[in-house]
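Dear support,

Our group has been running a series of protein-ligand predictions, and this particular one with 2-(butylsulfanyl)adenosine is the one our PI (initials K.S.) wants archived with full inputs and outputs. We had some confusion internally about which version of the output was final, so please treat the block below as the authoritative record. The input we submitted was:
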Amino acid sequence: MSQQDFFSQESSSTKEPASSEASSSSNSPSISVPVKEASSQIDDLRHTINLHNHRYYVLDEPSIPDAEYDRLLRELQTLEQQYPEFITPDSPTQRVGGTPLPGFTEVQHERPMLSLDNAMNAEEFKAFELRLRDRLKDDQTIEFACEPKLDGLAISLLYEQGKLVRAATRGDGVTGEDVTQNVRTIKNIPLALQGNDYPSRLEVRGEVYMPKAGFEAYNERALAEGIKPFANPRNAAAGSLRQLDSRITAKRPLEFCAYSMGVVSGDVELPDTHFGLLEKIQYWGLRINEETRVVKGLDAAQDFFIKLGAKRHSLAYEIDGIVFKVNSLALQETLGFVARAPRWAIAYKFPAVEELTQLLGVDFQVGRTGAITPVARLKPVHVAGVTVSNATLHNMDEIARLDVRIGDTVIIRRAGDVIPQVVSVVLDRRPSETIKITLPESCPVCNSHIERVEGEAVARCAGGLVCSAQRKEAIKHFASRKALDVEGLGDKLIEQLVEADLIHSFDDLFHLQLDELIALERMAEKSAQNVLKAIEKSKNTTLARFIYALGIREVGTVTANNLANHYGFLDRVMQATKDELLEISDIGDIVASHIVNFFAEEHNRSVIEQLRKAGVHWVESEPDNAKEDAPLHGQVAVITGTLSQMNREEAKAKLELLGAKVTGSVSAKTDFLVAGEKAGSKLTKAQQLDIKVYDEAAFLAFLASY
Ligand code: IVH
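Confirmed final output from the archive:
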């Protein structure tokens, strides 16, 4: 258990507060700790753990190893188990979620939680700044605090005497819902404030959000498990926080970022700027946004908007604009409020990333391996600064899940640079006449039939390289950077070459003539010469690149590398049986079948032959493990049981690197057996055959000796 996973995922809801391991830990308190001592030990431990939590979750600067953190936490759990009367709600052990609630209770906000006016473009933002200066009757340059507008859910946190006593949603701004139990599970929200100069009552307001990585991981899992994914990070945050069972919230990767104070009472002196307040909040242990800056005047504000806008896709969380707040609290006071929004702040929004449009039709695209992808043809719509007229629909299962039909109004989402997606259908707007989307029976490019393997979501064109679409994609892959790396042979040029009938298979690339290239549209002699030079250069390659370039299904660069390292010679890869392939790390049943099937095809073997004839070459040599001077050359090893320091794959790789051959079963040919915990029949057999056996410790020592 580590700081990272203590509160998260599976471990959080099921973990028993104090495990048996804890009592065996050398630093665990014994049952004889006197009450008074236990109480002060508990206080000390909580203090230390809270400090580490803050460093880890808020500052992102862990300062002790995970194992040490675990030890402290277990020690606290053990003490609390022995003295349950000392368990308090703010103890770091109490974050894992509790008994489900029958419903949420209402919370009246003492100070209303306001909303913000929006500026949708530069003119509106300029008008805002002008209004400010008008109202202040002053031509001075206004100082703004600029904060990213996080796309989540507004939350109020109430701390009394430094302890988190209540968390509430914004609701309608006046009445919200009590979500304390759920909020307590969010790791970067301190249950107790740091320092000692905080107000006796302090309300911190901010946004609860789900960072992009967590959102994507959640949706991936949801799709795999047949659960409805979240449409966007905002829904993810709201859906996760409005759970009656806080154990569910505890498993969601939520975070909090503070952006203002609400109620403040007690005898404390506060700074006179908004940014100053934020710094205080940060000092008391809460996260504020690290992109926040103070700028002077309209131009600097515009500049900030543009700069952060350009950077927004590289941020770990979704933002939909920038909030500009007059930094001086005195000026804020003068400006006051209108209706539900302050006059001193504005949300300057980035152009929307979700838009409504109409599905005009669906095309079916054919990929390198023949995979057929339905692509939505849309009525062009502006989304986040670009015009979108296509969006992916992934596969037929996705079309069924969305229940999307031609003629429907759909929501399009564009995130970062990824291909726009159809998020959902607006059923209210479905016209009476819509057309159902069906998979064509034959390939739209080459007319070969389309196969859909039972249980697979993807349908494929059976045409192979006969299909010009597959040919184009295969050649793009062949020439790509990680494959033969033909510089200057871009996608467009490859498409032209296939369309001009100049390339049918990979080897045609090496027979291209200068005049053929020059005859292509937009191809000057100089560029044509450069392309030919690059093609010539690419002939000198490596075995791993060549294997990858062939485009065998599921064989990426890692597998291609493993194959090259394992066999050393292409002919040996081509002759490998499925059983032999299965012995290579990372190669499972499906990949092994794809490899065997690929080389069994006569036309694939002949393409390889032609490529060699055309002069494509690489250095072939005995693989490392067959080198005669390798220390374990000629030795046969078997690994069985569970190893604690590494998994069997890693152990195998280490032995192979030393030249040993690692097989799956013990026989008279076996030289030694590595037996981890719970070794079974292989160990018995080795003992019967009088074969040398290394337990894990001996094996590690053995490896270390090389
Ligand atoms: S300030 C009086 N700052 O935007 C000011 N709001 O439309 C009230 N939001 O409900 C809010 N990031 O959920 C503020 N840095 C930020 C914000 C932010 C996101 C959200 C918040 C609020 C909504 C207002």
